Amino acid sequence: MLSVLAQSKLFKGLDPSILQAVQQHAHRHQVESGHQFVQQGKPALAVYVLIHGYAKIVQVTPDGHQVLMRYIGPGQEFGLVSVLEGFEYPASVQAVEECEALFWQGELLAQFIERYSRIAFNTLRIMAHQNQETQRRYQELLTEHVEQRLAQAILRLAQQVGHSIANGTLIDLPLSREDLAEIIGTDLYSISRLMSHWERDGLIQTDRKSIVLLRKEALERLAAQS
Amino acid sequence: MLSVLAQSKLFKGLDPSILQAVQQHAHRHQVESGHQFVQQGKPALAVYVLIHGYAKIVQVTPDGHQVLMRYIGPGQEFGLVSVLEGFEYPASVQAVEECEALFWQGELLAQFIERYSRIAFNTLRIMAHQNQETQRRYQELLTEHVEQRLAQAILRLAQQVGHSIANGTLIDLPLSREDLAEIIGTDLYSISRLMSHWERDGLIQTDRKSIVLLRKEALERLAAQS
DNA sequence: CGATGAATTGACCGATGTCAAGTGGCGTGG
DNA sequence: CCACGCCACTTGACATCGGTCAATTCATCG
Questions:
Q1: Strand C contact with B73 (CB < 7 A)
Q2: I need a labelling partner for A111 at 20 to 30 A (CA). Which of A65, B46, B158, B179 fits?
Q3: pLDDT tens, position by position, A79-111
Q4: Model pLDDT, residue B97
């Protein structure tokens, strides 16, 4: 568990003794599949680092649309805004399987930041990356069509949470057509059409619990062409 | 000029003596209308605070589309990522009128952050806000139509850079139809249609150099209805 | 083996991007 | 001071992507 922290973006690069100290202040939170760690709109009190399992970060818009921001796995953090006073969680975080996380009060992280500048810069780096990622997706939405966006999304998932297997890359998350629709901002019908098309052409292979990416280059070509 | 810094999001809340020290390390950069402070893709070396004038933050996508992220005015900062090593500027910053800015090497800001935690938290707060803003616009793009998005964009501009005048709010930036199109992600034709419609109905009033918002509530109603 | 929820597929339609032609105003240069 | 040309804007016609609805099939779990 210490080793997960040592690898995490938030706490990596710390002296072992400091890492120890950090870990000693952690609390543990276990959540079963489908349940939430934190809820959008509630005051942001704590920052979390996932130790085990996968979770998804979901926003719902004022008019009721769901937006699936991203999936996170072991070593990844959420709730960073809790270091700042007066913020609310911008999204809910929901376990897609049995999950375990460590968490710290936001104030405590603030103290860490004051004391250990390495943590301050780690935090900044994480936020900067998130910013870039959101902007990239914003641009995609502006300029690319549903087909390209879906291809990109699958490639991104493969890279983030995929495992290499014999004939390709396995993404073993229970991704419904609706989930994919919420990721790229469309409806499940469009997803369905594209997926069965790609499956016929042997680019991918799907069942209810997973996706296998068979011909990566072909998808990349699709994602690229504007 | 010190007072502009004292008001800026990046350096506000500092002891006067520290603010002094910060200012002593600043360099000055003057840029004429239409020219750039920094260029997208170049290594991010310095952070800037605008002292005078207005500038726009623009990204161009891999396939050549322009995206106008936002306008900034006196007291606002850009190039924050330069505190982190190995980043590039994610966007270009272009003056829309004669502009003057102070700037600091990224490494120097990093030292400030280590030494004065107030600056660290200011930086974090700025990044968190930017994130939220980008996500809000992402959602808008997903769920709202061109008409609502344009209404929102104009309201936002009015709030950020508008001046109250007799019959409404004046936005005195040289905003072409194309600029507006790049803000909300559409083409100049759609903008043109909507704008002339609204002008006929007396909601707004435009010429080449400015926009006057006459009936704010009416625009708000348009922006809200989904 | 039935029931329930997910996925598929087809038909339809509307918002919006694209193209083309025309208008108007402003500045420049004669 | 006038005329020309350029550029931003307007307006209409058209094409198309993709969102919506309805009907059907599929698979999974009890």
A1: no
A2: B46
A3: 999 999 999 999 999 999 999 999 999 999 999
A4: 92
C-beta of residue A147 within 8 angstroms of C-beta of residue A186:
no
Sheet holding B27-31, edge to edge: B27-31, B99-105, B46-52, B77-78
Give every CB contact of residue B5 below 8 A, 6+ residues apart in sequence: B11, B19, B22, B23, B49, B102
- Report the chain A residue with the minimal C-alpha distance to residue B109: A121
What DSSP letter does each residue of B60-106 carry, written as one string? E-TTS-EEEEEEE-TT-EE-GGGGSTT-B-SSEEEESSSEEEEEEEH
Give contacts of A90 with chain B, Cβ < 8 Å.
131-132, 135
- Element holding A22 (H helix, E strand): helix A16-24
Residues of chain A with Cβ-Cβ distance to B120 below 8 Å are 113-114, 117, 120, 124
Contacts 24+ apart (CB under 8 A), A71-75: A71/A96, A71/A157, A71/A160, A71/A161, A71/A173, A73/A160, A73/A161, A74/A4, A74/A50, A75/A4, A75/A7, A75/A8, A75/A9, A75/A49, A75/A50
The length of chain B is 226
Q: Which residues of A touch B (CB under 8 A)?
A: 59, 61, 63, 65, 67, 69, 80-81, 83-84, 87, 90, 110, 113-114, 117, 120-121, 123-125, 127-128, 130-132, 134-135, 137-139, 141-143, 185, 226
Between CA A51 and CA A98 the distance in angstroms is 11
pLDDT < 70 regions, chain B: 226
HSE toward the beta carbon, residue B51, CA cutoff 13 A: 15
